[in-house]
Amino acid sequence: MTAPALRPTGLPAPQVPDPMHGPALRWAVLGTGWIADRFVEALQQNTNQRVVAVGSRTLDRAAEFASARGIAEAYGSYEELVAAGVNVVYVATGHLDHLAHATLALEAGKPVLVEKPMTPRLADTRAIVALAREKGLFAMEAVWTLALPRYSVVRQVIESGMLGEVHEVHANLGERLIDHHRAMDPAQGGGAMNDIGSYTMMFANEMLPGLTVQAARGTRGPRSGSDTAGTEAAIAQFHALLGNDAGQIATVSASMFGDTPTTAYIAGSEATLALEAPFYQPGPVTVRFHDGEVLRYNEPALAHSQLFWEALEVARCIDAGLTESPLRPLDRTLETVALMEQARELMGDSLAH
């Protein structure tokens, strides 16, 4: 049992680097979609990191992206991009493309930051991890949540023992995406688990490592995208119950049918930590003790403009000669993807091959 610490008078301050004075890397962006654009915008507006190259499947698309964001080099193939003179490659393509594109970068000797989930399949994620370790190159899953100042506060609260013994964790995320072509296309790895549900699985696994999925139930959405006769539609919402032999439990859920509270909590024997919506983005942290006393850390809800924090973690690690981030070690990524697969098996879900 975790012994409760002496009750503090306030929550700890975030322990995060100075965005403008850390080691500056030369970044290449592999992919030109929405998340790539938000990532580049965040780096350019808030950090000393340099985005110097972008690649797409066509030169026209890469050049358009580069022109819009003031990027010097544009490449019409990913092979050309990873051969460029850069320090790290950010892989921002579709879920089912991550294995091929991360492999391409690693084989070219480039460290990688790979959008979450690193891949939806455990075997594919293991392949990336094994290759990065074999080559001694840095690799990290782009779970920006864990690099945020908000989550620095969360980690410090848990490590201090302020909550006492943690009994239960909960995370929910819901956004109406049922009409979103890519998000609901099984041929592109769409569905609630990959696009939004991985955040909830990640949260449970971070706060209570060592859980397994005990039960899971999902509901399929309408056919979308490249669905064909005989192909099942993607699961659009799910609930899962996770637990361990110590009796600790976590409940996680995600839905593309509609907007849900998108909050999270960690309930302990001494206090409960609550994260207001959206729990995986910047925002406040509240700790409520059983006698009613409340401690609170406040942070502006700046959404995806704060994606740069994960890039700063990558830069810090590479500069220090690390091949993995202590904020998101590769084994923790493997654990989360394993939980996702366990839930899929219980729901009778499978990914397109």
Structure description:
There is one protein chain. The protein is of the alpha/beta class and about 350 residues long. The protein has two domains: about 25-140, NAD(P)-binding Rossmann-like Domain (Rossmann fold, 3-Layer(aba) Sandwich), CATH 3.40.50.720; about 150-305 and about 325-345, Dihydrodipicolinate Reductase, domain 2 (2-Layer Sandwich), CATH 3.30.360.10. It has nine helices and 14 strands. It has helices at about 35-45, 60-70, 80, 100-105, 120-135, 150-160, 190-205, 310-320, 330-345, and strands at about 25-30, 50-55, 75, 90, 110-115, 140, 165-175, 210-220, 235-245, 250-255, 265-270, 270-275, 285-290, 295. The termini are far apart. The mean pLDDT is about 95.
Keywords:
single chain, 353 residues, alpha/beta, Rossmann fold, Dihydrodipicolinate Reductase, domain 2, 2 domains, 8-stranded mixed sheet, 6-stranded parallel sheet, 9 helices, 14 strands, 22% strand, globular
Offer a quick outline of the entry:
With 353 residues, this protein is of the alpha/beta class. 31% of the residues lie in helices and 22% in strands.
Give a topology summary.
Elements: E1 26-30, H1 34-46, E2 50-55, H2 59-69, E3 73-75, H3 78-82, E4 88-91, H4 98-107, E5 112-115, H5 122-135, E6 139-142, H6 149-160, E7 166-174, H7 192-207, E8 212-220, E9 235-243, E10 249-255, E11 264-268, E12 271-275, E13 285-289, E14 294-297, H8 308-319, H9 330-347
Parallel strand pairs: 1-2, 1-4, 2-3, 4-5, 5-6, 7-10
Antiparallel strand pairs: 7-11, 8-9, 9-10, 11-12, 12-13, 13-14
Helix pairs in contact: 4-5, 5-9, 7-9
